[in-house]
Amino acid sequence: MKLSLVVPAYNEEKAIEKVLDEALGYVDEVIVVDDGSKDNTAKIARSFIKEHKKSDNKNKEIKLISHAINLGKAAALNTGVKNSSGEVVIFTDADDTYPCRHVPELIKEIENGADLVIGSRFLPKPPKNMSFSHVFGNKLFSSLVSYISSTNITDSQSGMRAFRKEIFPQIDVRAKSLEYEPKATARAAKLGYKIKEIPIAYRKRIGESKMHGLKDGFKILFSLMSVAYGETTLLARMIMIPSFLLALIGIIIAGFLIKDYLMIGIVKRPYYPLIAALSLIVSTQLFSLGLIIDNVAKKLSRMEETIRRKQ
Fold this sequence. Notes:
It is built from ten helices and seven strands. The two termini are 24 Å apart. A seven-stranded mixed sheet has the order 3-2-1-4-6-5-7, sandwiched between helices. It is of the alpha/beta class and 311 residues long.
């Protein structure tokens, strides 16, 4: 089984040589996609490839593909997959955060029948070298992906993953940057592909982070919310929309109650508390019913897709 490693790189001159040197011990082919870097990333990779051709390890191939401009991580990954020749493709980052020693573990799960294997940094617990905001954001996004896909995902944003190349056209999604991984994970689960997570180590990155906290966080959140809405069944939507309206009514009435109490010390409209409470209770019940219906429908859909692919 031929293994291809795709390494998207943008301004990673400090780490790219170390990443390539480590990767050659675990895969048959490495595809570096320089995504319009403004530093010496491409130059260093090109020099490494030149020296590699002189070595005794010529059976391991390294390709360098360059984008003229920065197109984003998703585009770089797509370019890498299209130019790979292995039956199994592995993704990793060019900042040296993911140890390549985990590649054999990823491949073992593929050989055992998994379609997509994700290296989870959160098994058994979050890494100590990850900030609280990143841990919190990842847990939030992973929970949302788990709901969308009706499967348990602990690290939806992990950049280290392996999959059979033949399924890539089905699990590929539209994305610009960091939202690619969680969207692709949700897509694979919805289509009934077998997803497996394995625990991996997470090293401190070399160089400056490309992630912009709140900006990228909101981008991923809105992207996943749009996926969640699109993947929600029509019946569940018909139940959930009235629940949101009732919740809004309850919150507005509660706001008037608080305003009256703060300004004059009494509640002028004695029936308002009852209306607000009823609105919020019915809203919660409708929303819960919608979630149950949607979750059952998703599980049935996954079962149907799995049976259809096996026929």
